């Protein structure tokens, strides 16, 4: 089994200590520092070190109910800003000056913000400072997300709405949009890595895309297909990364060209046990008459379901994440962690996939939902009848099927899996983090880590050994 | 908000507030017949009759923000086009001609049906059927009171005796609103105190019921800022019920008043206890057993007008486009001239686009201020979107602006308004000292016109939607284009009556007021004269008639109250409900 050795292995690197006494919802890795922020139902956010794997500080005293979500503001230097969303319907913004001695700091007693009234002016420079509370949602806040530039904050709630806030001054935020088209609890919001385009996922089974048109934010696309709650949406990195070697260079070129035209893809996971990848169908550039003063077309975007990942999970999939290196990891109610890779497709992928199927015998018999899904609207002339991979994949392979300029150019394969990652507990969230590890010659090398957060209040860090 | 409180959402997942005081399972499948469904059923009544299970009334639901959707289900059942038909079929129509010396007490078993119509509804219907705004007014009159309208069917062949344009009382509201602002400017600094005399600056308009409902539930700190004036709908309701009950010597509950509005939330307004006869009837001891009677019994929207006609098999577009042949005289000649100006086109009711689509409260206040300060100029600055506009009046004699006001439409902009009005207080959270100083700043406005709907009242939730209009594909309109068409109809009011030669003389016909004191086409002295006449003829203090009050409505959401609530919440979280 030659290819077996090339498969990554998932191994537990560390369990963060001490863990939360009650259910933990989500862990957000800091964009630049080796820090992790874990949201807990004990109304606190716990800041852990990704180097010592211990608790550094705790944000308490702000929220009156479970902290459901948090997000680090990007593009900051010298200071870290964290947005927190809670079941108490409020969003908090917190600040802390970055200190140099982050790494080996010993365990610190949780910051006691309850004593704040007495000594409101006596803050340590390296403690968390509350900046502002953003009120407006009428019910539990489920997800918060900063735009790539960091100037916009999106929040969503059980009240079925998505709000967009703009920072207009120091700790001063304005509501610039309240989007109410969803017909159910909005579970997740995520910003496009480059454009000011927001994706939201909902209990109404839909994914919606939002964009500003002149001065009004509006829905520019509805991605329908999931048969149940969409728990999570995530964007692909700006640069795609496909594993393996392409068989034909022209196929690869075509694929890359199309990917360039459509931009980063969108990833979604659902209660319907499916994980789907969505791609923008770029609008054809209609040459405009120089005389025409009418803007061509609407802001509506056409998105299609490009493919589904192999079905592995047997319970609702709560969380997915797409790494910068192109891998996808998923987790959910069944407690499994599954890692997927997108590979250049070979006409004879049979060997590999059979092997993969054998290795994952625990999940045999799972219905093959990895069938490629073609969009009727797509021109099919490029499809060249290379469909056998999907047939013999035993549920393990999903083929990027739709035509355009890259028929069946890639497929997704399961490369690693762990069951019962948090024992009998559900895993609520999975995220990619990275750390620098010294190689033999003393050079620091970036290593992808997987961080899972569970109902047991535990946060685990996993290595993907390649 | 209007977008939420729309009948379209009725199939929503209904999630009652965790701590809803009225368990859903006790909801009756159908409203019991012996209770007039348009009445607010109170707890007392239910206990007394010991009959059907508890009913969630709209008033009950307003106390709990946790279940807007279940509230709206009740709302729609209590105030709908079907309810209008039920009311018409419930009793014989009161005959104002059959009076014994202006005494209608011998007709105690009959009901007087009256209707009032807002200009935005006419604009919506006009745009839908491609007719002019004044023709639409005639068609509505024909539907509600004409022989080919509702009178052509039903158990008793009842129709509406009088159909009033709410524009009349809107003018009263404008004049009073301008005075309220002038008065608040005379008070040295109302920022600190909250005396009952006048609202805190900036005064916020209170005509939009969605905004009021939201402020009461979510932002009680803005309540002292709200204009105390009743909305045109409420003013029209109070006027009709007070005047007609006194003049005809009948009980207020013998008068059944339907209001036709662009907005679902107006149903919420109509159900406010503050807008019932207990706030103005002189001797409550006279009628000890009588339930509060609403000034407006039922509100239906433009869309429901069409349903009303359809249900009776009447084709609205085919109704005659002429005024009713005969119109019974309103029992008070002075008010008659005010409510039914001749010709149909009133003295001055041309809407200027600058006045906006929501009645022009801010516009009238600005015009009043301009008239008070000769040589002053008005500058408007657009905010970050079309629904935020700031107005500044400057005078060559003053270095700083002499008057500042703004318009905030739409939910998202309201968010920023209420945040700026938040009192500066030590935050419950640490570190707020840096930002605390900034809150409350930048609110040097004297007045802000606030409306919940983006685009204002012509875009109300009850208006006919572009999708409802059967148009050929090639003429399909976007929502924006559709709104522009309604706005056009709204602003074109009366402009189409070019052949109306009486128009120039209408002023003097109506009243002997001096045209010289016109502001924004309205004569304040004439309007004030009418209001005084109203107060004098009914023997009720004017303040009681034209003002109302607001109260904080406790919400259970997001608050850790008693242990019971918390436990329920925790439980919901444990079984995954928290997801």
From TrEMBL, chain A:
One of its GO terms (cellular component) is cytosolic [4Fe-4S] assembly targeting complex. GO terms for biological process: iron-sulfur cluster assembly. WD repeats lie at residues 60-94, 134-166, 179-210, 449-466. InterPro entries: CIAO1/Cia1 (IPR028608), WD40/YVTN_repeat-like_dom_sf (IPR015943), WD40_repeat_dom_sf (IPR036322), WD40_rpt (IPR001680). The keyword Repeat applies. Keywords: Repeat, WD repeat. Residues 362-382 are annotated as: Disordered. SMART domains: WD40. It holds the Pfam family WD40. PANTHER family: CYTOSOLIC IRON-SULFUR PROTEIN ASSEMBLY PROTEIN CIAO1-RELATED, WD40 PROTEIN CIAO1. Essential component of the cytosolic iron-sulfur (Fe/S) protein assembly machinery. Required for the maturation of extramitochondrial Fe/S proteins. Belongs to the WD repeat CIA1 family. This is Probable cytosolic iron-sulfur protein assembly protein 1. It comes from Cladonia borealis. The lineage of its organism: Eukaryota, Fungi, Dikarya, Ascomycota, Pezizomycotina. The gene is CIA1.
TrEMBL record, chain B:
SUPFAM superfamilies: Fe-only hydrogenase (SSF53920). InterPro entries: Cytosolic_Fe-S_CAF, Fe_hydrogenase, Fe_hydrogenase_lsu_C. Signal peptide: none annotated. Pfam families: Fe_hyd_lg_C (PF02906). Gene3D superfamilies: 3.40.50.1780, Fe-only Hydrogenase (Larger Subunit), Chain L, domain 3. Residues 494-519 are annotated as: Disordered. Keywords: 4Fe-4S, Iron, Iron-sulfur, Metal-binding. Residues 113-461 form the Iron hydrogenase large subunit C-terminal domain. The keyword Iron-sulfur applies. The keyword Iron-sulfur applies. One of its GO terms (molecular function) is 4 iron, 4 sulfur cluster binding. Belongs to the NARF family. Component of the cytosolic Fe/S protein assembly machinery. Required for maturation of extramitochondrial Fe/S proteins. May play a role in the transfer of pre-assembled Fe/S clusters to target apoproteins. This is Nuclear architecture-related protein 1. It comes from Cladonia borealis.
């Amino acid at each position: 089994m030659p290819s077996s050795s090339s498969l990554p292995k998932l191994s537990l690197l560390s369990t963060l200590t001490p863990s939360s006494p009650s259910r933990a919802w989500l862990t957000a890795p800091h964009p630049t520092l080796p820090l992790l922020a874990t949201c807990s139902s004990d109304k606190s956010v716990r800041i852990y070190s990704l180097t010592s794997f211990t608790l550094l500080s705790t944000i308490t005293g702000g929220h009156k109910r479970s902290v459901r979500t948090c997000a680090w503001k990007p593009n900051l230097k010298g200071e870290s800003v964290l947005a927190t969303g809670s079941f108490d319907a409020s969003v908090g913004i917190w600040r802390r000056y970055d200190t140099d001695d982050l790494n080996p700091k010993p365990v610190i007693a949780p910051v006691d913000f309850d004593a704040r009234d007495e000594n409101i002016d006596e803050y340590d420079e390296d403690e968390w400072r509350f900046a502002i509370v953003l009120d407006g949602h009428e019910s539990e806040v489920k997800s918060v997300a900063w735009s790539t530039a960091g100037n916009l904050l999106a929040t969503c709630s059980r009240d079925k709405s998505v709000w967009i806030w703009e920072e207009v001054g120091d700790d001063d935020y304005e509501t610039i949009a309240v989007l109410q088209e969803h017909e159910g609890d909005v579970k997740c919001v995520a910003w496009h890595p480059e454009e000011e385009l927001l994706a939201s996922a909902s209990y109404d089974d839909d994914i919606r895309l939002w964009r500003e048109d002149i001065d009004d934010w509006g829905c520019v696309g509805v991605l329908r297909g999931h048969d149940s709650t969409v728990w999570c949406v995530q964007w692909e990195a700006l640069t795609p990364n496909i594993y393996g070697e392409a068989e034909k260079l022209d196929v690869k070129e075509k694929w890359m060209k199309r990917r360039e035209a459509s931009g980063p893809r969108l990833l979604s996971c659902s209660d319907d046990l499916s994980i789907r990848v969505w791609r923008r169908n770029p609008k054809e550039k209609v040459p405009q008459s120089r005389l025409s003063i009418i803007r061509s077309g609407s802001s509506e975007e056409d998105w299609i379901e490009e493919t589904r990942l192999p079905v592995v999970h047997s319970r609702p999939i709560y969380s997915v994440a797409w790494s910068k290196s192109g891998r996808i990891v998923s987790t959910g109610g069944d407690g499994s962690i599954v890692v997927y890779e997108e590979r250049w497709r070979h006409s004879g992928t049979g060997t590999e996939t059979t092997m993969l199927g054998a290795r994952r015998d625990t999940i045999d018999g799972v219905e093959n939902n990895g069938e490629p899904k073609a969009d009727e609207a797509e021109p099919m002339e490029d499809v060249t009848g290379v469909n056998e991979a999907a047939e013999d994949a035993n549920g393990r392979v999903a083929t990027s099927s739709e035509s355009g300029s890259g028929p069946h150019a890639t497929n997704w394969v399961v490369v690693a899996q762990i069951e019962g990652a948090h024992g009998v507990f559900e895993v609520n969230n999975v995220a990619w983090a990275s750390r620098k590890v010294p190689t033999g010659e003393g050079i620091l090398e970036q290593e992808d880590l997987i961080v899972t957060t569970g109902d047991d209040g535990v946060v685990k860090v996993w290595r993907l050994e390649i | 908000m209007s977008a939420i409180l729309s009948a379209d959402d009725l199939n929503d997942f209904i999630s009652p507030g965790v701590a809803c005081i009225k368990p859903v399972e006790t909801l009756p499948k159908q409203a019991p017949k012996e209770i007039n469904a348009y009445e607010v059923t109170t707890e007392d009544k239910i206990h007394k009759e010991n009959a059907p299970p508890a009913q969630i009334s709209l008033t009950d639901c307003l106390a709990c923000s946790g279940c807007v959707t279940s509230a709206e289900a009740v709302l729609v059942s209590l105030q709908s086009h079907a309810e209008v038909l039920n009311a018409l079929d419930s009793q014989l129509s009161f005959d104002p001609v059959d009076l014994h010396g202006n005494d209608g007490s011998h007709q105690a078993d009959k009901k007087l049906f009256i209707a009032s119509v807002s200009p935005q509804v006419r604009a919506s219907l006009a745009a839908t059927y491609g007719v002019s705004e004044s023709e639409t007014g005639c068609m509505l009159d024909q539907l509600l009171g004409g022989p080919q309208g509702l009178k052509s069917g039903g158990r008793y062949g009842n129709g509406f005796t009088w159909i009033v344009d709410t524009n009349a009382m809107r003018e009263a509201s404008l004049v009073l609103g301008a005075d309220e602002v002038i008065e608040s400017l005379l008070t040295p600094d109302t920022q600190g105190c909250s005396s009952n005399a006048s609202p805190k600056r900036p005064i916020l308009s209170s005509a939009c019921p969605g905004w009021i409902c939201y402020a009461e539930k979510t932002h009680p700190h803005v309540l002292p800022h709200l204009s105390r004036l009743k909305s045109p709908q409420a003013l029209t309701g109070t006027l009709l019920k007070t005047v007609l009950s006194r003049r005809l010597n009948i009980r207020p509950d013998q008068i059944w008043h339907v209001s036709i509005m662009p907005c679902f939330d107006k149903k919420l307004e109509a159900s406010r206890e503050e807008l019932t006869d207990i706030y103005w009837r002189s001797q409550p001891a006279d009628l000890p057993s009588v339930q509060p009677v609403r000034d407006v019994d039922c509100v239906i929207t433009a869309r429901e007008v069409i349903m009303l006609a359809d249900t009776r098999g009447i084709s609205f577009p085919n109704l005659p486009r002429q005024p009713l042949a005969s119109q019974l005289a309103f029992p008070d000649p002075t008010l008659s001239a005010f409510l039914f100006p001749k010709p149909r086109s009133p003295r001055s009711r041309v809407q200027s686009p600058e006045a906006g689509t929501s009645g022009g409260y801010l516009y009238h206040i600005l015009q009043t201020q301009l008239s008070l300060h000769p040589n002053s100029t008005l500058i408007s600055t657009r905010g970050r979107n079309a629904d935020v506009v700031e107005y500044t009046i400057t005078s060559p004699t003053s270095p700083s602006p002499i008057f500042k006001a703004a318009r905030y439409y739409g939910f998202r902009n309201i968010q920023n308004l209420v945040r700026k009005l938040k009192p500066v207080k030590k935050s419950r959270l640490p570190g707020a000292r840096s930002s605390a100083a900034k809150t409350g700043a930048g609110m040097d406005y004297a007045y802000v016109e606030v409306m919940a709907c983006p685009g204002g009242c012509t875009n109300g939730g009850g208006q006919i939607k572009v999708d409802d209009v059967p148009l050929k594909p090639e003429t399909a309109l976007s929502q924006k284009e559709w709104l522009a068409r309604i706005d056009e109809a709204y602003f074109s009011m009366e402009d189409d009556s070019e052949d109306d030669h009486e128009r120039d003389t209408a002023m003097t016909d109506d009243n002997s007021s001096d045209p010289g004191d016109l502001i924004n086409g309205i004569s304040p002295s004439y309007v004030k004269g009418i209001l005084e006449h109203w107060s004098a003829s009914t023997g009720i203090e004017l303040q009681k008639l034209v003002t109302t009050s607001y109260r904080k409505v406790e919400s259970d959401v997001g608050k850790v109250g008693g242990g019971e609530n918390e436990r329920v919440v925790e439980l919901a979280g444990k079984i995954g409900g928290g997801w």
